[in-house]
Structures
1.
Amino acid sequence: MAMQNDLRSSEREALLFHSEGRPGKIEIIASKPMATQRDLSLAYSPGVAVPVRAIAEDPALAYEYTIKGNLVAVITNGTAILGLGNLGALASKPVMEGKAVLFKRFADVDAIDLELDTEDPDAFINSVALMEPSFGGINLEDIKAPECFIIEQALRERMNIPVFHDDQHGTAVIMAAGLINALHLTGRAMKDVKMVVNGAGAAAIACTALAKSIGIPGDQVILCDSKGVIYRGRTDGINQWKSAHAAETDARTLADAMRGADVFLGLSVEGAVSAEMVESMAPRPIIFALANPNPEILPETVKAIRPDAIIATGRSDYANQINNVLGFPYIFRGALDVRATTVNEEMKVAAAHAIAELARQRVPEEVAAAYGGKGSTFGPDYIIPAPFDPRLIETVPIAVARAAMASGVARRPITDETAYRSQLRARLNPTTAVLASAYEEARSHPKRLIFTEAEEETVLRAAIAFREEGYGVPVLIGHADRVREGLDRLGCDAAEFEIHNARVSPLIPEMVARLYTRLQRKGFLHRDCLRLVNQDRNVFGALLLDMGHGDAMITGTTRHFRQSLDQVRLVLDPAEGHLPFGVHVLVGRSSTVFVADTTVNERPTASELADIAQQTATIARRMGHAPRVAFLSYSNFGNPPGEWLETSREAVILLDGRGVDFEFEGEMSPDVALNSTLKRHYPFSRLTGPANVLIMPGLQSANISAKLLKELGSGAVLGPFLVGMEKPVQIAAMTSTASDLLTMAVLAGAGVVC
Ligand SMILES: NC(=O)C1=CN([C@@H]2O[C@H](COP(=O)(O)OP(=O)(O)OC[C@H]3O[C@@H](n4cnc5c(N)ncnc54)[C@H](OP(=O)(O)O)[C@@H]3O)[C@@H](O)[C@H]2O)C=CC1
Ligand SMILES: CC(=O)C(=O)O
Ligand SMILES: [Mg+2]
């Protein structure tokens, strides 16, 4: 695109993220095999005629024989895209694809985006109403007020599936959850609260209505729009939705309204609130500045004037993110699961209370592990759960489903809540929450990350993102001029980066001395060490790490794994009592499998296999999983017999003796390890479920399997991660993309995999 050179690197990354691989963020995949002639004749003509006739006779069977019951349409006309304004239907597509991805990621709801090219409410309403047969629910998005009210109302009346305008009700539910908790923390009763809402559009009107319906007295709420206070009798710029909330007041400006107010709720535009306005509020004010992407006032400005304030924004980079992403996936999950005809007030209030209560609960241990070990405790900086909190999927849909049943809109009530809860839990993979929390952890404890191959554009892009996204300081190794040129090409100011040139660095004498002390009795002369330091970026990088100039190191994109490892090992040792080895992490939709040793030890001994199992189990646990270890083979418990089975068997016996605190079993084939049906043939097996840690008998099978899965598999494959070194070093695959490198850097920095 023509403007590429004017973009900041984070903006360029955002464009690359959307264009790399398949353009966009979603694809459709078949949920049934389509491999044989028989599959085709069942999926299509003639087999497909059977469900067609069945549905024609009984429409409810569409939920049994098609995707309808799990499919939501995200529909917009692009008239109020986030806070960016009316940029049209086509331009809104990235946001709508994004919402579809969030539906899938957080609640396993399949969603498809539809951008309608019209600003005429009737045309919009007619188009959407005709789509009822296709979908289980309709999520309206980013349609401006007041048309959004007309559209939603008409569609709710005409359609017999849930119709939900996310910017109105999704936002209101999350705002209400945050408000309930902020009032609780400041010891206020709803009936005493004076509230000011700035903005009188889609989000603001719905939030005001919900705030009143949960107990804030109507005559204590003042609404403002771009022209000031909406007071009784005002005629300028008014519509029926605004006048329904017109206040009996002398206040005419936002500043008048805010004097003495307890709560400020902003759903307007960046910078609408001044420091003076905040100063004039009641003690312990509650300030929700929710305009996106930039809030009405920045949290740091509020804190400087009113340290006693509770502040929330719509963004993920401050504490207390109040954003509808916490609501719409789970509200639809619950509504779809009971086949609700609508999302009513009771369901919204139930969701708000469930979310609020989650933040007040003590974070259980397994969830704390998924948060990267850092607990979140209810308080002014934690009034609302983070979007990746794995408890949301178990609690919010249940609350919504219960409310739907109690209010008579559920067509298929839940009969066994315990079974429903486990079904919900199984929809998500805890690893994804851990990855998200590792990124948070990295932001709150920034590290110095050594990137040894900084002349490579992929590496530089990862290093730039590492810095710009706040994970820490990239320490770049390379010819300074070439690295600077690369930074310049990518639109960065090279002066802001730390670059080390291995030929001229002032650290060289100390490095050579250290290396010589270490290698002099291993056949290396002093001048050999000087040459290594000058010419080998892995040796130089590892020495920087060893001397404390960085917290972790990442390399591998220009050299084979073994060569990089041998160079690093000239400088660094394994951690005491640890065996260095490699782990690939296969992240599927609802499960994760750890495979080891995929990179280092060609024919591990029984004792080495046992060590690898123990260390991999620790990583699995760190990533939120109870480890179930299988020692893999072509054979199952002695059948067929073979020459090479002994090491795996001995490893099992060794672990028996070590009294470890995780499940393990072997030797067994991968299908027996992973498939519960086959496992029934071995009732004595000690694994209580499918294995999630696969210990391979040797490097051949391990490395081949990992690479096959990476090339042919459908889920994400992370790694190889190098485990068991005295300092965190990661050797990436030569095929790594910038985001692969960033993930490795962040996980290495956060100490999740090391
Ligand atoms: N955090 C979250 O989850 C969400 C945040 N939002 C944010 O809320 C904002 C509004 O979105 P939405 O309701 O969908 O948009 P709408 O277009 O429906 O409404 C915008 C409203 O903002 C008002 N406004 C504009 N400038 C000012 C100003 N200086 N002072 C007071 N009011 C002003 C407009 O006033 P007027 O009527 O006079 O034109 C209008 O009422 C956006 O920034 C959006 O990103 C929205 C949804 C969710
Ligand atoms: C978050 C959201 O939906 C918005 O800002 O429009
Ligand atoms: Mg929106």
2.
Amino acid sequence: MSADLLPVAIPTGQRPAPIAELFYSFQGEGVSLGRRALFVRFLGCNLTCGYAEVPTSHDTPAQGSTLCDTEYTWNSTKHDLSAGVWHLTPQEIWDELLQLDPTTADPSLAQVDLIVVTGGEPLLHKDAVLHLAHQARLTDRCVEIETNATIKPGPDLVAAGVAFNAGLKLASSAVPRKKRIKPDAIMEIEASGRARWKFVVSTLDDLVEIAELQAQFGLTEIWLSPEGTTPERVVEQMRMAAAPALEHGWNLTTREHVLIWGGQRAR
Ligand SMILES: Nc1nc2[nH]cc(C(=O)O)c2c(=O)[nH]1
Ligand code: SF4
Ligand SMILES: [Mg+2]
């Protein structure tokens, strides 16, 4: 075999990862609400919010009141996961993100200084996330990882200075507790000192469970996030959650992108 036919070894950190969406918007939830951000949405999730198990057909009924709002990243019974997906190396993801930052075309504009990494579950693609975290740091940008907090991020990612918008799932997701509550991952994320625990609330029972999890794991910073993919539903859930949030010492975010654009994708 001549040298130019030898298979090229791809360095572990540069394996392509499946990307569902790259977009430029406002961070719609949590501590950075309203800040302009560049978003990366990875394909794939290790949970099945709304269902107790992986659905077996497109009409498998949901069993939980908190349904995943991005089923197109993992539910192959309802969506063609290969449609519109890109397989990009971590460096290619970074290059595409920079193209979305308007300062690239017009340096007189302020740089977008926040990268939001989401999914699916982005920590299933740790090498890619770590590369983005390093590139972000080199360019003075912050990174927020929207994770379900079931996978340990590992020391490299913690040392890279990222923040975790850690969305622990509750019984209302229908996912069995032993799949959605992973004590080792929760403790590692809390110990990073950059965890914001974000709970999607759809019922008053959710609030009881949040208080129990807070006490069990010593969660320091809690955010309630209203369940809903319409502005009306988001406002209704915020009204339900507001008084209990103030009473328990919890923060309450809205979902700004839903208020502006409803349930549209890549917003
Ligand atoms: N604008 C906007 N903000 C977001 N914050 C977290 C998001 C997510 O889907 O994880 C999200 C999203 O999908 N859009
Ligand atoms: S963890 Fe997030 S992406 Fe995964 S199923 Fe639940 S809501 Fe959907
Ligand atoms: Mg979302």
3.
Amino acid sequence: MDATAQAGHPASATDAAPAVDIRLEGISKVYADGTVGVAELDLAFAAGELTVLVGPSGCGKTTTMKMINRLIEPTTGRILLGGEDVTRADPEQLRRRIGYVIQSIGLFPHQTVRTNVGTVPRLLGWDKDRIRTRVDELLATVGLDPAAHGDRYPAQLSGGQRQRAGVARALAADPPVLLVDEPFSAVDPVVRERLQSEFLRLQQAVRKTIVFVTHDIEEAVRIGDRIAVMSQGGRVEQYATPAELLGRPANDFVADFVGADRGLKRLAVTGIDPGDLERPPVVHVADGLADARSALEHAGARWAVVLDDQENLHGWLSADHAGGPGTVGSVARRMEAWVPADSSLKAAFATMLQHEAGWVAVLDGDRFLGVLTPESLHAALRRSVEGTVPETAGATLA
Ligand SMILES: Nc1ncnc2c1ncn2[C@@H]1O[C@H](COP(=O)(O)OP(=O)(O)OP(=O)(O)O)[C@@H](O)[C@H]1O
């Protein structure tokens, strides 16, 4: 949902609800048979952040999440929404302020996509035109064509399209809070990754307070601002950003859960810091080759970066070609291996491998900032554990 769509529709102006924080205080759930689903849990979810609850099967993730909208009534404790105690609020009213996305139940099968998405606005008594406008706006936002998909039934959509319709339905009344339960578990890995990216983009636009349950640590580090790793009984073993979790697991349980390949996973959540870049010799397109050669010899380097007269990246020059008359521009090679400065280390590494390059240039727009080599990449990763490297999208949505 983009801001212009909201602003351009006065009837929606009042429902652009600001995100609120959620606090669970001493919350427990003891089921009728005596099973302790969650015991004495204190957990806060920051306003506008995407928090992931992750942990092995049966650890209490779903119980925790469903206590927030009181689909499961807590046995003890308090739930605060934006500071307001909603532990005993009317559950129906409460749920209109809390969007809910689930994989299994999802959409009403005998209603069209439009009717499904308009469910909560109808309950809230919006007039028909306002609902129609809002629903079509939301369908477009989640990547469904209202004309093509709006009048279909859920069974006539693909799994990914159904999921998008589910997200649109949850967002329809612009609730400040969104609960999301394993939404992408039924789709194949490729679609799953695409839906995760779309979901992240959507969150960047809407900035809801999202509680997201998954058992998949890859998904958690990819999309979470913060992650709570839980063990049996809803015990929080660590509550941290993806980079902290992967870089400094609090104990053996977390280390096991995040996996032995956590160093690799960390590549995806660690951004490039300008301080990590190496600065090889730089020559310019118009320079004479003799000058370029002496610059290379002076630096003791085998290659140089070639910039144009605007200081933008042009390519690179090998010492083997820096001989004879002519200019650098006549023998410089194009530089295919480059990434934007806001990329993750993983993207930089993938680009290096894709082009079988020994280094990758880092650009801010067209401006050349420096290069990453396997050595500097490794150093950057090590430094990220010390918490000095900014994190990328998944970790810094807030
Ligand atoms: N209605 C119920 N009656 C009794 N025990 C229950 C009930 N619902 C859940 N439990 C138990 O509470 C514990 C936590 O369950 P919960 O569904 O919250 O776990 P989860 O972490 O979401 O698991 P999964 O990843 O498998 O969905 C489990 O031991 C489960 O068996």
